[in-house]
Write a structure and sequence with these properties.
By secondary structure, the chain is mainly alpha-helical. It has five helices and two strands; from the N terminus they run ββααααα. The chain has a domain of 126 residues. A two-stranded antiparallel ribbon has the order 1-2.
């Protein structure tokens, strides 16, 4: 046991007290189960979904986006490097083709959505249009310093991590993540 003598410079409770104060820390290691339960409770109170449920969705969405990006890249790079189409135009064409592939894979495999197709398709098209614009602007901005290949790769990774996946999860396929059927009022 660790104890210190009361001293008014250290703990000025009373100038006449000279009792022993126990300052022994009462620590114990929490089990993994207790820590997980505690973090899930904290997350639920904060309105945040469990990170454990994020990993499979993130992985599948990353694979789906990787397949779509491969298709996108083959089209964009072929148009630019073989047919001499300007980089911004070939990026836009490739992004549209990859977007269709990405929609199919994300809806049916990554998020396993059963929401209203029309509403999800509209939200997906909106997010994809903004992502295509961001990708096109990123390539246009970075092509001079990095070259087409570098600009294309850096832009794709940045837009996926910072924009596309976040909005797919929170906006486009939100009902699939919650595991609830969308109501007509909530899905608008």
């Amino acid at each position: 046991m660790v104890a210190i003598l009361h001293h008014k410079a250290l703990c000025p409770i009373s100038e006449t007290t000279s009792e022993v104060i126990d300052v022994t820390p009462r620590l114990r290691l929490a089990t993994h189960r207790e820590m997980k339960s505690s973090s899930d409770t904290f997350a639920a109170e904060a309105g945040v979904r469990s990170v454990g449920r994020l990993r499979p969705t993130l992985g599948r969405s990353a694979v789906a986006s990787g397949v779509a990006t491969l298709l996108d890249g083959v089209i964009a790079w072929s148009l630019t490097l073989l047919l001499y189409v300007p980089g911004t135009a070939s990026t836009l064409i490739g992004a549209v083709a990859g977007g269709v592939m990405n929609w199919l894979l994300n809806r049916h495999w990554a998020f396993r959505s059963r929401g209203a197709v029309g509403r999800e398709a509209f939200r997906y098209a909106l997010v994809s249009a903004v992502a295509a614009l961001l990708n096109t602007l990123g390539v246009a901005w970075l092509e001079a310093p990095l070259g087409f290949r570098g600009a294309w790769l850096v832009t794709r990774v940045g837009v996926f991590c910072g924009f596309t996946f976040v909005l797919f999860r929170a906006f486009v396929f939100r009902h699939a993540i919650r595991g609830t059927a969308p109501s007509s009022r909530e899905d608008r």
